[in-house]
TrEMBL record:
Its main location: membrane. This is 1,4-dihydroxy-2-naphthoate prenyltransferase. The keyword Transmembrane applies. InterPro entries: UbiA_prenyltransferase (IPR000537), UbiA_sf (IPR044878), UBIAD1 (IPR026046). Pfam families: UbiA. It is a multi-pass membrane protein. Pathway: Quinol/quinone metabolism; menaquinone biosynthesis. It is found in: Membrane. Keywords: Membrane, Menaquinone biosynthesis, Transferase, Transmembrane, Transmembrane helix. It comes from Saccharothrix mutabilis subsp. mutabilis. The lineage of its organism: Bacteria, Bacillati, Actinomycetota, Actinomycetes, Pseudonocardiales.
């Protein structure tokens, strides 16, 4: 007789999958708002985007589960989520908290890897369009997600920051390509802006986790440079985001795009102040999450208007 997993274990799997971090999944809303008006309620387009989104959630669950497994085995998560650090929630790391075993996490990761691949293949199969560049973006995104902290361990070879932005870029471009088969400058710049969001709270996480990452040889920019060098890197990324906002009208966005995204620019300045002037890195990270969500709302409003 099949028995259901106890509620505590279900919660542990939800935390393992980081289902409370919605920020990459918001890309589908940006894509929907970018679609021509006649496609926004098209049944096949909506089905394709829904299957792609569910697949994205499952692939991301596999990625973060493998990341937790590697972080537990090399000791970096034990360092960064130490029980005596009141600012980090230990239950977010079920292996460190002891609510899941390594065997359970490995099984979960493999199941989600297979299911995620099947869902993305199904999205491609039913999509109105299947341009080669879109299929390539999906394949590369899947490979890099699974290999982020496992197998090739891309994040252990200096590609972590690039991946954080690239993943956000891909989850806008791919479903848009499946829905329309086309691409233009406005879509590209909005995909880039979307990708900057997770990057600009990820680098604050890396700043906080610098000691654990150095201990295991994980070469984030924060671990490779001095505190001043890392601060300059984060400032440069924030400036790049502002430059993208200002350049967007040259690539097809409306002339008032910069005004609509002004809250993003101001919130980034505040995030820098909190993180590096006040020295509260984890609060700055939370501000980064809120900034990304404000940016998503602004992009949707711009596109619908």
């Amino acid at each position: 007789m099949t028995t259901l997993a106890p509620p505590g274990r279900v919660r542990a799997y939800v935390r393992l999958a980081k289902l409370d971090i919605l920020d990459y999944y918001l890309g589908v809303l940006v894509v929907w708002s970018l679609l021509p008006a006649d496609l926004r309620l098209d049944g096949l387009v909506l089905a394709t985007m829904a299957i792609f989104l569910i697949g994205e959630v499952v692939v991301m669950a596999a990625m973060v589960a493998l990341d937790d497994l590697t972080g537990f085995r090399d000791g970096s998560d034990i360092t960064n989520y130490a029980p005596d650090d009141p600012r980090r929630r230990l239950e977010r790391k079920p292996l460190v908290a002891g609510t899941l075993t390594e065997r359970q996490v490995v099984r979960f990761a493999w199941i989600t890897c297979v299911v995620g691949a099947a869902l993305w293949l199904a999205a491609v199969a039913i999509a109105p369009h299947r341009p080669q560049w879109t299929v390539l973006v999906i394949a590369v995104t899947y490979f890099f997600s699974v290999q982020y902290s496992w197998g090739v361990k891309l994040s252990y070879h200096g590609f972590q920051e690039f991946f954080l932005a690239g993943l956000g870029f891909a989850v806008v471009l791919a479903p848009y390509g499946l829905a329309t088969g086309a691409l233009d400058g406005n879509v590209v710049v909005q995909a880039l802006l979307f990708g900057m969001g997770p990057l600009l709270f990820g680098v604050y996480s890396n700043t906080n986790d610098v000691e654990g990452d150095r201990r295991v040889g994980r070469p984030t920019v924060a671990a490779l440079t001095t505190p001043r060098g890392n601060m300059r890197f984060v400032i440069a990324l924030s400036a790049l985001e502002t430059a993208l906002v200002l350049a967007a009208p040259l690539l097809g966005a409306p002339w008032w795009f910069g005004l609509a995204l002004l809250p993003t620019i101001l919130m980034r300045v505040n995030q820098l102040r909190v993180g590096f002037a006040d020295g509260d890195i984890l609060r700055a990270r939370r501000l980064g999450i809120r900034t990304h969500r404000v940016t998503v709302v602004a992009l949707i409003v711009v596109n619908l208007l």
